[in-house]
Amino acid sequence: MGATRADVARLAGVSPAVVSYVLHDGTRPVAPKTRERVLDAIAKLDYRPDPVAQALRGQRTHSVGLLVPDHDNPFYADLQREVEHLAFDDGLVLLVGTTGAGRDRETKYLRAFVDRRVDGLLMMSSQAPDELSLVAAAGMPVVTLDRVQAASGVSTVISNERSGARRAVEHLIECGYRRIGCIAGPGESQGATDRVAGWKEGLEAAGLVAQERLVSRGPFSREGGTSAALALLGDVDALFVSSDVQAAGVVALTHARGIAVPDELGIVSFDGTDLARYSTPALTVVEQPMRAMAEVAMRRLNGLIADPGRTPTHDVLEPRLVVRESTRPRAAAGPEA
Fold this sequence. Notes:
This protein is α/β, with parallel strands linked by helices. The chain has 3 domains: 5-49, 434 Repressor (Amino-terminal Domain) (Orthogonal Bundle); 63-159 and 290-318, Response regulator (Rossmann fold, 3-Layer(aba) Sandwich); 161-287 and 322-333, Response regulator (Rossmann fold, 3-Layer(aba) Sandwich), CATH 3.40.50. It has 14 helices and 12 strands.
């Protein structure tokens, strides 16, 4: 059994209340020599305050909950890593739950984090906006790195997926591609919908027709990318792919079919993870500002923890185009297929 606050008090020759004043710097003045004796006793006994007991007394637990849909999509894994680094630097313990993009699982995690009295909650997506609204209404600071219903009363940090998708299509058109298809995510995903809207805007701004038959949807997975691409190959000379993980499936299919990228098929994907960087060929991407998203989200969350009455904020960050080997001007790539 670990040392208690009473043990520290006995060794330092003070009352438990004085130990508390030292631990919670600023609550009551403590003489420098007394403070030194208490800190020395804490070090000798390796005393650690009980975070659960602190929570029951209404104090901070210095822990933050993080909900992610899955780790198979490298975008979520990369974003989680950025959040974890920042939380560690802020002296916070990060408790992570994987929802599998399921409403029931998300609801159970939300309730578990509330029961464990985490200081705040970060979410990379939300399938249970009603439950999330209740969590926020109960006073739990919440920031999502995704779009949620405006009525939920939580702060959001997102990248501008619509403008990013449009920039991807503009780049393909600048390269000389004209029959540009779109591999989209599931229809219930707002992010997937915004990326399709950006694809459409990019084509229409260039005077090209955005044909619905050139949109093929699939899950955000390698298998989803492969199956969606099968419906489009032969009808397109380029693809805007809504995620790097889907693009990995598309690239595997081009290798299996002997389709030369970028000569026969140009590809731009969305996210900007290592999966795209180390693909063969390396993929041109719309890179989401993951570090900046994590920084803004942590700053917003810390602000809400310090002042729970703050009005929810909604930050939109711009992605950037990174040109690599999966696109190039058609004049250099040979005649159009």
